[in-house]
Every structure is written in structure tokens, then in C-alpha cells.
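COURSE: Structural Biology Practicum
ASSIGNMENT: Worksheet 4, Part C
STUDENT ID: 0417
INSTRUCTIONS: Below are two proteins. For each, the amino acid sequence is given first, followed by its C-alpha cell string. Answer the questions at the end about the second protein only.

PROTEIN I
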Amino acid sequence: MATAGKVIKCRAAVAWEPNKPLVIEEIEVAPPQANEVRIKIVATGVCHTDLYHLFEGMHKDGFPAVLGHEGAGIVESVGPGVTEFQPGDKVIPLFVSQCRECRFCKNPKTNQCEKGWASGRHDMMAPADSRFTCKGKKVLQFMGTSTFSQYTVMNQIAIAKIDPAAPLDKVCLLGCGICTGYGAAVNTAKVEPGSTCAVFGLGAVGLAAVMGCKSAGAKRIFAVDINPDKFGKAKVFGATDFVNPKDHDKPISQVLAEMTNGGVDYSLECVGNVTVMRSALESCVKGWGVSVLVGWTDLYDVATRPIQLIAGRTWKGSLFGGETHLSLVWILPNMNWGCGCVRVQMQISLSRQMVCSYFLHY
């Protein structure tokens, strides 16, 4: 391409400081260096984690930054040493890396990597190095991705090459929401056929978790949210029961215990709230109940009484649903992009994608 090896000037939504609106700016995107790939972003969604960094985490050293980590695009150029990608490839940028060489990559129990952006910088939510500049200042790449820019540069170990036929406006949701929720149910919780599940929070991640529970064969799936307008969407994804904590004068864990003869087999917290995390754990049946933390937060300690775990419950966390870029390569060719679940998932984030698309491309 004519732009290969050159600095690209493009538009991006820049977060100059915490708790302030994003500003559409012209930024400079440097050419890819060794083992890097420059990507033209075609579609992006908005995830709560973007808002968390801007309005909740607000780490002073995490700004200025270009947010966004749920995108899809086309390879514009590659740097020296890149052999798996070439210009024109359709790709999904990922906030999880896979170098295939470190002790984490070689262990099938995890999808984490020692060479990922989060190594020692999870509080700032960005690697120290960046290919972005704006008005003479370095601009950080949020979670190593920064999909709220028309172009971004990433290490090849954090990119998934996808089916050339995959629609980018849909597959961008695999960059976080769908994989995070679906994988948390299937890979992390390991939901079993005939089981009962409760999903707390019915955003894109929570709805994907509901879909994962259904795919795994759960018999009853409780959708828990304080917004009843979300229950219709949850039903499409497979939820069988709907519980609004505001409708009850007792703890939601007690409500679910009474509805399930002691508690659910699996619960997934998809909010990122430590109080909800405790409720999700205590909603599980003693002896074998499994509760998974899916929602992102690092602001407060999470706690429960020891007897909750002594009684046999398991409390665990899930990052990106345990998926890797290699699992995405397998998933994409096997997905039916015309099916109802994928269409609804697309509709959930469509309005948010249109906002980003409007500002970045017009």
C-alpha cells in the first residue's frame, strides 16, 4: 500500500485526562516496527471497561490515551519479522497476547502471557510504548489495542487473523464481549448439561454468558439485573427465569436459594461490582457451586465469610473467557452469522458502534 513505511495521520477519540469527554483529534500513527502490524480499524464497539478506565479507574499515568479494545479491521502494513500476516488480511486486535514461548502460553490452564501489555501495568491499562502521537505528545494505547482510532499498531502476538468472509461489523464484538461472556460459562465455569445457572448483569458480556450457559446445556438460566427492559433480550439468548433484585426485600442470594432448593450450580458476575460478586458467590449451592468473576474492576477488595468457601463453593476469575487468538481462528469459520443470537448481539452494540463510526469516519 502507498502508506506502508510512512506515518499516517488519521482521526481518533483521545482521552486527554480522567473523567473528561473524549476529543476527536488528528493523531500520527507511526509505521510498524519489528514484529508489529498496522491495522485499519473498520468497526469497533464500546465496552464498559473503556468507561471504567475513563470514569472509575482514572489512573493519572494512564492518560492521554486512545480507548477502545473491541474492534476489527484490515492489515495495512507489517513490520520486519512478521510472517503470519500480510496487507489485506482481516484481523481482530486482542487485549490478550500469546507469544507461545512463555510458561503461561505453554500451560493449557491459562490464556495469559508474560509478554502481554498487562505485565506490571494493569493499573494504567496501557503498555509504556506507543506508536501514537498527538500535538507533539505521546498518546497511550489502551489495553495495547486502541480501536477508537482509524489506525492502530500492535504486536503480532495479540492479533487474530480471521475468515476473509467474516463481516467486520459483527466480528468486532468477539474482541471482548462475546468471547468474555461465552467463554466464562463454557471454558471457566465449565457449565454442565442439566445444571442451573445465574448470570448477574445483562450487558453484552452477560448476554453472551447466558448464551454460553445455554450452549453448554443448562436446564435453568436465571438472568439477574435491575433493568427489566433487558429481560426480553436475555430470553432470546436462552434465559429461562428473570430476577430483579429491586423486586425483593431480601438478599438476591436468598431469593435464588429459595427458587432452586439451595442455590444455583453456577453463577457468573458480569458487572464488575464487588458487592454483586459476593452476591453471586453466595447464590451458589454449597458443596459444588462455582462462581466466576467476569466483570472488570480493580478498585476495591472483594470479600465473603470463610464458611462460604469452606462449605465447598469455588470462586474463580476469567479473563477474555479463557480464549486465545488461536481459538478465534477456529470459532469464526464455524459461526452462523445469520443466526438469531448473533443478530441480536450485533443489535445490542450497534448504536454504540455507530457513534464511534460517525466521529471517526465522517
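PROTEIN II
(use this one for the questions)
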Amino acid sequence: MPVPNTSQEVSIYSPEAGLVFSTLSFTKKRTPCPWCFLIPSAMASSSFSSSSKATFAFVLLFVFLGSSSAKLSTNFYSKTCPKLMTTVRSVVKSAVSKEKRMGASLLRLHFHDCFVNGCDGSILLDDTSSFTGEKTAGPNNGSVRGYNVIDDIKSEVEDACPGVVSCADIVAIAARDSVVLLGGPAWDVKLGRRDSKTASLSAANSGVIPPPTSTLSNLVNRFKAKGLSTKDMVVLSGSHTIGQARCVIFRARIYNETNIDSSFAKTRQGSCPLTAGSGDNNLAPLDVQSPTVFDNKYYKNLINQKGLLHSDQVLHNGGSTDSLVEKYSEDSDSFDSDFSAAMIKMGDISPLTGSSGEIRKKCRKVNS
């Protein structure tokens, strides 16, 4: 549909600087250039003074510089919160030293946050009278952990630099630090996310987080929907080299499936009874070889049909991802570098930046 030309006055405002630079008359025209409506209709006329032209040029430059600064960057808090990294690392190190499983939980928290409406810290919000949050959603209820650790980190960070660092960024940093503390690779975390002001139970329950019963096709499609490739999916699944799963999640696999090592299945059955409701919350390591070390043995397990979850074993079951599993099982350096790259990519999923969202004072609730 054609867009008619319209004349209007626009005040150029910078939310970062808190200044109104100028109020000018603009003509909004149908144009392939999405920002060309900012060009003043008076620019071409002699009545548009040199000083006004200079002011407009500065404003336009500031608009574009401002928009680029809204992107995530690894040095986002270098001046506003220089002790951020050491503060987060200290709290994560303390938590993981007390319980190594917490490292896996913090990594999973980041994944479950990013896959529901982007990496915006929405998973951290408690229910309110105006919305039911994501904590009780099927993929999260009774399994997602680490909220208290994030609270502890936020408290320390607020003491160091109040009102500066988002909860969403804290989750991203904590995930990286957890991997490193358990022997995995390091990467530069991009920062500058802001926190959502709401959360959605229905979004978290919509299937965007692939269930442990997923087929290979569903895994590929769910990750593709978030801008992640099949390779990203396979390498991020390698996060199951750490952590544990509940009996209720893997019961069907160890009793009903045939693409499973028989001795491995029998061992798991010892702590996971066939009867539903019996031992549902009993835990088993996702990586039977080195469950508290971030390494590539997860992929070796898959080749030997010792994947604990159905969604793990489908990655090596005569399908299109077999070769990637075999590659990572043999080349730990490739796994580490590809995992780091995929984590950075996942952290880019639909972040709130600029003036969107807020910087929460407490991660469990929006600011009043």
C-alpha cells in the first residue's frame, strides 16, 4: 500500500544524553531507506539556514552513533562497572565449589531464558497479580535451578555498581563462568542486555524449548527458529556433558528403547523404577563418564549408545548429525571452539537494548 507524504515536526531526543537537540519540520516519504524520513523538507530550500543544517547533521550523526551503541559488546560495563566480572566469578566459584551440579544448572538457566522471548531475564521473575511467569512452565518446573545464586550475584553487583548491570547479563556471565570452572572453554560474553518487565508461562510452554522426547527434526527446527544452525544445536547439546536428569525424564528411554547399551540401561534402571510415580525425582548423570567435568565425553557416550535422554541419542542414530557427533568425540579442541561460538550466538537471541526493558534492582521482580 502506498505511503502518503506527511509533514510533521519532530523533536530529536537522546535517551542516553537526556537532551532535546532540535525541533525541525520533516517530510515522511515513501522510500526504500527506512530512516530517510528524517531528512527535513526544508533542507533543500534557501530558508533552511547553515546553522540549522549543521545542527541537523550533528543530530543525524548522533542518531546513528546512538543506534550502534545499543548493540551488545564485550566491554559494555568496562567503565560503569569495572569489577563486574570478578564479582560474578567469585559468587559462581563459591556456589560451584559447594555443589558442582550448580554449574550445569546455571548454564541451563541461560539456555531456558534465551529460548523464551530472547535473553531478557524473564525466567527469573516470580509470578505476580498481572502475569504468571515461566518458573512453573513444563520445561522449568522442578528442574531449572540456580535462582538463588543469581540473587546472590545481583546483590553483590548492586553493592559495587547500583542500577547498572541487568539480570539478563548476569545470567549470561554466570553461564560462561560455570563452564570454565568445570574445565570447559572461556569466551568473551557480549553484554548490554536489559531486563524484561514481564514473563510468559504460555510462551515457555509453547514448545520453543525442545523437550527431552524430541526427534532430531524437532531439535533442528526449534534451534533454527532461534537463528541457530544444526551444528549449533549439536554442539550446544554438548552442555549435557555436565549435570543430571530426573528419572521421570529418562524412564521411557531406559525401559522402552532399543538403541541403548543394555548394561547402561540396566544400571540406570537400578535407581529409576519402571512404575510411574516411584523414584521420579531420582537423579542420574547426563554424562556417565565424567559428569562434573566439561569435556567431550558426552559425544563418546552417544557413539556407544549411552545417551541418557532420547533427545541426546537421536544425535547419533543413523541420521544427518552422526558425523558431527563423531567429529566432536575425537576432537575436543573443535568442540571447545565451536561451543564457545555457539554460546555467543545464542546470547544474541532477541536481547532488549537501548531504552527497552529496564535494569531490575532485584532479579525476581520488576522495578516498582
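ANSWER KEY EXCERPT:
Q1: Residues 1-48, 51-69 have pLDDT under 50 and may be disordered.
Q2: Residues 50-69 form the longest helix (20 residues).
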